[in-house]
Design a protein that fits this description.
alpha+beta; Beta-Lactamase; 5 strands; globular; GlcG_carb_metab_protein
Length: 140
């Protein structure tokens, strides 16, 4: 199984932050995780609040852990709150099924996930998708 490289993660994060600045979004934190949910690269912009890194990590971790983008997971969590609460309380890593994270795909293989926190869920998702595209990768 392949994993997102540090070089790819840098491109994703740098470009996601550039998009956030161009759009005038609030200060962001971004976390890239590999296919096993391990941190590859996380950054918090100056002015981003304290929990932003943990939230971004929880979004990315839930996305890779459940094999789905976090927009879909947020919908599922609203439909099955008991099940998702149980996952969050037993997961070995932060688990936050809220919009703002997507899977990173190379070819047909999921190689990681990236999550953002700082804006609305739609803003968070917009910047990570743009970062992935800048790295020449795709997302789900």
């Amino acid at each position: 199984m392949s994993n997102v490289s540090l070089g790819q993660a840098r491109v994703i994060v740098d470009n996601a932050l550039q998009i956030a600045r161009e759009q005038g979004f609030r200060p962001m934190a971004i976390m890239v995780v590999d296919s096993a949910g391990h941190s590859v690269l996380g950054l918090r912009e100056d002015g981003a609040s304290h929990l932003r890194v943990e939230i971004a990590a929880g979004k990315a971790g839930s996305s890779i852990g459940m094999g789905s983008n976090s927009r879909v997971l947020a919908k599922r969590a609203a439909e099955m709150p008991g099940f998702f609460s149980a996952i969050a309380s037993t997961a070995s890593q932060p688990f936050i099924p809220q919009t703002g994270a997507v899977l990173i795909v190379q070819g047909e293989e999921v190689i990681g996930a990236v999550g953002a926190s700082g804006g609305t869920g739609d803003e968070d998702e917009l910047i990570v998708v743009g970062g992935i595209a800048a790295a020449g990768l795709s997302y789900r």
